Amino acid sequence: MAYDLTGKIKVVKETQTIGAKGFTKREFVVTVEEGKYPQDIALECVQDKTKLLDGLKEGQLVTVTFDIRGREYNGRYFNNLQAWRIKAEESGESAGDDRPPIPADAEAPGDFDDDIPF
Where are the domains of the chain? Predict the structure, then answer.
């Protein structure tokens, strides 16, 4: 079963190679702003999916599709969130700034009157 979450990239770690067989994984954290308090959600990409994180920047808004994986080890149970699709949202580039961009001088509207009466 697949799950989705939307949030901003907080951390993208380097790719790790584990074991002699060359298993690779790459971890990242997405901050989700739903509810009263923001939540930092740790996810991972494994094997060929580690390339999904290339080019993503901190503060970028993304939608991550992932599966929940669980396992038992020595009587303890562990869960992993394995991402398999990451879609960068267009509005994520502003990193929280809702103001429109400042136009260059060539784009500035009309002449300005600098004689302000006060």
Answer: 2-91
Strand boundaries in the chain, DSSP class E: 2-12, 16-18, 23-32, 39-46, 61-73, 76-88
pTM (2 decimals)?
0.70
pLDDT one-digit tens code per residue, 30-55 = 999 988 999 999 999 999 999 999 98
Burial of 82 (0-12, 13-18, 19+ CB in 10 A): middle
Q: What's 2-91's CATH class?
A: mainly beta
Tell me the backbone φ, ψ of residue 111, rounded to 5 degrees.
-90, 150
d(CA 30, CA 23): 23
